[in-house]
Write a structure and sequence with these properties.
Elements lengths: L11 H10 L2 E3 L6 E3 L2 H8 L5 E2 L10 H17 L14 H12 L2 H22 L4 E3 H6 L1 H10 L7 H12 L9 H27 L5 H14 L7 H32 L4 H6 L1 H11 L6 E5 L3 E3 L2 E3 L4 E4 L1 H4 L35 H18 E6 L6 E3 L6 E4 L1 E6 L6
Parallel strand pairs: 2-8
Antiparallel strand pairs: 1-2, 3-5, 4-12, 5-8, 6-7, 9-12, 10-11
Length: 414
């Protein structure tokens, strides 16, 4: 098979075919082995010794992409700091050190402390379109919300969201295949280097005067590591961790919020339940439409799975979106059910040592977003005059646009 069926706007029927008949399917051209069954993904993701995360995008691309990727790294080294393996492209025990530090940053207590700010940002965004009766949900709410949340943690004001998005888009350019030629490669690398120098100043400021934000927590965790006899984070390590937090907390959270709104418009009969239990709604939305549909692992030895020989060095594509609809794990998996039991089993944040470290914040943003939207507005539906648009892509389930209409809601902040 080729990758084309996985790019379909509705890949779920194809996932069912693979799960049923070809749970381990080798792609023609790339040679990736696609896994679609829940228990297979669970086993692979929890065994980093056999299925390593120490691979980068250059291993998955053609020669031109590898050359441009190397040029991007060279440019960063010249103008800023090079990428180094931290959370991504590493396995235990190296990965364990970074994970321990980040767990302190994204502690439940810290995320709870951020809730008033997330509520404030939600209400400010809703204020801007509530009176119109319609909105382009992606650009007017779903993307600005996580962007402003992270921007404020970086010391940027909400008025500087354009700067943040420019930085984040440049950081994501290699992963999104935007390094198409030398000019584009150098342009995006220069923008990321600009962001790096800004962040270096923020790191130093937070060392001198902590403010209680995420960067202050990361710098403090590094200092505690040093005081305990360990090695503090180097500047390239700090830069790489922030790059992952920015890109991971921006695009995928926005995609999750957008997909949840699309599901809400398709199931208005469940809105009373959603209001009563927004947390289960958030998890069921993540299960139904995983923002990250799949990622990669590399076999460190020859293995056999469902009678298929997977050689050492082969790339496995673990398809979260397919595992989330596995009937062996979820009853009536293609049915959207806000009252679903055991919904937290979904794999939208991964599993094992590389499960998404920012999941607590992403979940809170998703829950708070719909608490405020449903408290202030009502009668959400798709705009009949404008069709939603999807972004094509192998890894992400993403809407380019989601035009919606709505009516006035309850008494809050009308």
């Amino acid at each position: 098979m080729t990758a084309e069926p996985l790019l379909d706007p509705d890949p779920y029927p194809y996932y069912e075919q693979l799960r049923t008949h070809h749970p381990v399917q080798r792609m023609n051209g790339t040679g990736f082995y696609v896994l679609t069954r829940y228990e297979d993904l669970r086993a692979v993701l929890r065994d980093p010794e056999t299925f390593s995360n120490t691979l980068d995008l250059e291993e998955l691309s053609g020669e031109k992409a590898r050359q441009l990727g190397a040029r991007y790294q060279q440019r960063l080294k010249e103008k800023g700091w090079p990428h180094v393996p931290t959370l991504h492209q590493s396995d235990p025990p190296e990965h364990t050190r970074y994970r321990r530090l980040l767990n302190k940053v994204f502690s439940p207590t810290r995320v709870r402390q951020m809730v008033p700010d997330v509520q404030r940002i939600c209400d400010q965004l809703i204020d801007a379109f509530a009176g119109a009766g319609h909105a382009e949900f992606v650009q007017e709410f779903a993307f600005p919300l996580p962007a402003i949340v992270i921007s404020e943690q970086l010391g940027l004001s909400s008025q500087e969201i354009g700067t943040f998005r420019r930085w984040a888009d440049a950081m994501l350019a290699p992963a999104q295949g935007l390094l198409t030629d030398e000019e584009a490669t150098l342009r995006y690398a220069d923008i990321e280097a600009e962001a790096q120098h800004y962040l270096a100043g923020v790191f130093e400021a937070r060392r001198q005067n902590p403010t209680g934000d995420l960067i202050s927590a990361l710098v403090a965790a590094s200092q505690e590591e040093e005081q305990a006899g360990g090695r503090p984070l180097s500047m390239p390590e700090l830069q790489n961790l922030l790059q992952q937090l920015i890109t991971g907390g921006y695009i995928t959270t926005a995609d999750a919020i957008t997909s949840a709104m699309w599901l809400l418009t398709q199931h208005p009969e469940q809105i009373p339940q959603i209001k009563n239990d927004p947390k289960t709604f958030a998890e069921e939305s993540l299960r139904m439409l995983a923002p990250v549909q799949g990622l990669f692992r590399k076999a460190t030895r020859d293995v056999e799975l469902h009678g298929v020989n997977i050689p050492e060095g082969a790339i496995l594509h673990v398809r979260y979106g397919a595992a989330n609809r596995d009937p062996g794990t979820f009853r009536a998996p293609d049915t959207f059910d806000v009252a679903r039991e055991h919904v937290m089993r979904h794999m939208s944040f991964g599993q094992g040592p590389h499960a998404c470290v920012g999941a607590p914040l992403a979940r809170q943003e998703l829950v708070t977003a719909f608490e405020r939207l449903l408290a202030r507005l009502d009668d959400f539906r798709l705009d009949p005059d404008h069709e939603p648009e999807r972004n094509p892509g192998l890894l992400f389930y993403s809407f380019k646009t989601l035009p919606i209409r709505f009516g006035p809601g309850g008494p809050e902040r009308q």
